[in-house]
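Sequence and structure are no longer studied apart. As an example, we show below a sequence and the C-alpha cells encoding its fold:
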Amino acid sequence: MPEQPAPPTPDAQDTAVPAVPAPHGPAVGAGPAARRTGFLLVLVLGGLTATPPLAMDMYLPSLPEVTRSLGAPAATVQLTLTACLAGMALGQLVVGPMSDRWGRRRPLLAGLACYVVATALCAVAPDVGTLVAFRLVQGLAGAAGIVIARAVVRDLYDGVAMARFFSTLMLVSGVAPVVAPLIGGQILRVTDWRGVFVVLTAVGALLAALVWVRLPETLPPARRHAGGAAAAVRAMRTLLADLPFTGYMLAGGFAFAALFAYIAASPFVIQEIYGASPQTFSLLFGLNSVGLVIAGQVNGKVLVGRVSLDKVLGAGLAVTVLAATALLLMASGALGPVGLAPVAAALFVLMSAMGLTLPNAQSLALLRTRHAAGSASALLGTSSFLVGAVASPLVGIAGERTAVPMAIVQLAGALVALACFVGMCRPWAARGNARAKSRKGEES
C-alpha cells in the first residue's frame, strides 16, 4: 500500500480513502470490487471487535449453572469474568507494540490461534481454578483482535474516513452485547455451560479463517519499528507526552467508565429498585444498545465530514453530563418520586451519546499518530478497560437498593472526560491554528 500523507489536524474535513489491498493481489480500486472489499473489511474487523463482548456476554446466562456444576462459590465463579476482562486489558499492551514491529497479520493470527485453543480448554476445565486460568489466557489472546482492528483502521484510513469507519464498526460492536446473552440462553436450552465455550471456539476458528483468507497485511515493512520492549515503552512514553493524545485517550476512557457503570448496575437498578421484570430489562437494554448504534450511524453518515470531530465529541460529552446529572437528581430524590420511564429515558440518552463520543475520541487520538498505531491502539484500549474495571464495582458500594452510586460514577466519569477534553485537547486552539495556517497560505 502506498505511503499515506501525514495525519491532518483534528479539524480536517476532507480525506481520501486509500485503496484496500487485496489478500493475494494488487490494491482494489473504486467500483463494485472496492465495495465488496470494503464490506469484507467491515465484516472481519467487526468480528474482531465483537469477539470480546461475545466471550463475556454469551457466558453470563450460564454463571449459575457453572456454580452448581463445579461446586464453587458464586464469588469465585465471578472471577472467571474478572480474569477475562483483566486479560483483555493487559493483552493489548503486549500485542499493540508487537504489531508495530512485526506487522498486523502475524500477531493477529497468533492471538486468534491462542484464543481458539484457550476457549476450547475452557470447555473441558475440570474445576473453577483451571477455568479462571484459561479465561485469563482467553482474554489475553482475545485482546489481539481488539487492538489490531483499531490499528488496521488507522493504517488504511485518515481523518473523516477513519471516523466514519469507526462508526460503522460500532454497528457491529453495539449489536454484539445485545444478542450475546440471548444466544447464550438459547445454547443452554440444548446443552450445558460447556457448550457455550464450544460455540465460542467455533466462532473464533471461523474468524481466524476469515482473517487468514481476507485480511491482508496493512503495515508495510518500511513503516514498522525495530526494537524490543524498550522501544515499545519509548513509543508509549512519546504518545503519552503528546498532551492532546492523552486528553483524547482519557476522555474516551472516562466516558467508557460511564458505560461500564451502566452495564454493571442496570440489572439491579431496573429490576430490584424499579421492579421491572427480566423481560422488561432485556427490552430496555436492547433499546439502549439500539440508541447507541443509531447515534453511531448518524455520526458516521451525517455529522462526520460536515461538522468537525472535536465539535461532535464535545457535544456527545455534554449530553452525557446532562443525562448523568438528570439520573443523579432522580436517584437522590431531588425531583421527588419518579417511576421507571424517566430513568429509562435518561439512560437511553446517556447510552445514545456514547455513539457520538467513543468513535470520535478514538479517531481524534489515532489522528495524532501513524508510526505507532499499534501502541496507540493498545493505550486506548487498556485505559478504557482499566477505568471501566475500576468503575464497575463502585456502582454497588451502597448496596443494591439505590441507584445513587451508579449515577455518581456516571456523572463523575462524564465530568472528568469533559475536563480532559477541554483542558488537554484544547479544541479551540486547534481550530485557531488551522485557520491561521489557512490565512497564511492564502496570503503567500
User: Anything to note?
Assistant: DSSP finds 15 helices and no strands in the chain. The mean pLDDT is 80. The CA atoms of residues 188 and 430 lie 53 Å apart.
